[in-house]
Amino acid sequence: MKRNNTVYLLIIALVIALSIASLSATAESGSITALANTTSDENGNYTFSNLPAGDYVISVAYYTPAMGGKWFTGRTYTSVGDGTAESDVAVWLTFGSEEDANNIRNASIDSSSLTGTSTISGQTLAHKMGGEVVAMTNATVIISSYLKGDLDCDGRLTSTDALIALGMSTGSREPEMAGDMNGDCAVTSLDSLMILHAE
Ligand SMILES: [Ca+2]
Ligand SMILES: [Ca+2]
How far is the centre of ligand 1, averaged over its atoms, from the C-alpha of 135 (Å)? Predict the structure, then answer.
């Protein structure tokens, strides 16, 4: 009887610990720290300069009062070498949530690491109904650095990230290019293995 009680208490403690962990994960997901922000021009062009070599994610938010007011969001992963320029990095926008758009628009900026000489530039684009490509002008564009393979965004590569990548490779999760370790533009079980080995 006593042993049963102990097991019961342990299970309750585990459930509470897991709930707290998931709560704090939700609370953190809203805040984004970016290296820089800008607004795309009248042709949808954006440029970020003074970047050090590294892996970057570019996030875009756009609002249109048309159709009763709609938010668009988009994200592109890219890398740049030391002192080089990556041009034509397109960010494709689709209908997004107001919450995601506001997280991008309200991102806090820490530009202290912008001491490099690399440049990333491109266009913010969307497909009109019917497939025609349009440039999204005056969209909010932010750039953040990220650790390749860190799919739970905790700053480390662990077996959790490998499991998430495995889920992406089997189609049970939406693939994110942050999980593409070998740069072949797909998340496969090989990427999952590479994350596990990098641990
Ligand atoms: Ca991680
Ligand atoms: Ca890959």
Answer: 34
Together in a domain, 40 and 25: no
Instruction: Write down the residue that tokens 């440039």 correspond to.
Output: 135
Which ligand number lies closest to the CA of residue 77? 2
- Cα–Cα nearest to 57, from 42, 79, 81: 79
- Nearest ligand by distance to the CA of 149: 1
Q: What is the pLDDT of residues 55-88, one digit of tens each?
A: 999 999 999 998 899 999 999 999 999 999 999 9
Same domain, 138 and 43: yes
pTM: 0.76
Instruction: Classify residue 82 as left (phi > 0), alpha (psi -120 to 50) or beta.
Output: beta
Element (H, E) at 55: strand 54-64
